[in-house]
Amino acid sequence: MADDPVKSHDGWGWPTSATKPHYFKDARSLCRRWVQVGLGGGRVQIEANADSPSSSTDCLPCTRKLAKLKERGGV
Question: Among 20, 21, 56, 66, which is least packed, fewest CB within 10 Å?
């Protein structure tokens, strides 16, 4: 659902000071190390419903948790 404000924040994003892209669900990374904040510093650009931007460099905990979520139908 494109108009759902929570779902629009789900997807792969690269926090400004992160060394790897992380998967965000409900504005928090699946590895729990990053939180997407509103307007201003530290904002994360999210690619909603996109596959990983570059799977070899993705956050491994995020990748593993995303796979589990997909198995359970949570994404």
Answer: 56
Q: Using a cut of 0.85, tell me whether the model's pTM lies above it.
A: no
Quote the tokens at residue 62: 């995020």
Task: Give the C-alpha separation, 51 to 41, whole Å.
Answer: 25
Rg (CA), the chain: 12
- CA of 65: how far to CAs of 24, 35, 60, in Å? 11, 16, 9
DSSP 42: T
Token pair of 64 as six digits: 């593993």
pLDDT of residue 35: 87
Stretch 44-68: mean pLDDT, rounded?
A: 75
CB atoms within 10 A of CB 47: 15
